[in-house]
Amino acid sequence: MQRDEQRGAPALPEHPEHLTRRVRELQQENEALHTRVRRLSTERQRLQTQMSDLIRLHAASTRLRESRTNSELVATFEEIIKDLLGSESFAVFELEPDASALSWLGGMGVDSKLPRRIPVREGPLAFVVQQGRIWVSEPVPTDDLAPRACIPLRLGSRVLGIIAIFQLLPHKPSFETTDHVLFELLETQGGMALHCARCPTGGGPLTRGS
To answer: Could you say which of 5, 21, 78, 89 would form a disulfide bridge with 167 (CB–CB 3.0 to 4.6 Å)?
Structure first.
């Protein structure tokens, strides 16, 4: 009988020190869970951004492959550079057959500031023509007409033209990792598109309206 009474008796309250310690443990567990949730949320956002970038790059590649004329190609370059790279100050040049000069194909923001023909002598443009490699300025130039990046448009190892990026939009202070992937896409896919646009003219230089 006494044992039954003990079984039914209410439990004695825990010692205050034990409760304080338990509350502290629960708070730490809660903070750890919140930290993990924030990390997972950040990782999800990173993956979503990466997926979005890949989709946009694929779309850019498709648009380049579909560009068959001079005007279509220049419009595609302008769309990609403005929307994906974040620049409204750039120029697209074609390398002349003897590789002595670059001829203007199109651009934005520098139309009235650059000559329509630039001899290949020295500087970033000459480096890209001669080396066939992407060039990025370090540090950021202060002159609005000094290129921040130059991208060769290549067919294999042969440079057919160059895209020169001069300024980025105010909200974008520097190039990002995805931008360098875009540079490589423009280098190869853009070079192939430029080659295809030349085909109707028998492989000669492009001209307006071709």
So the answer is: 89
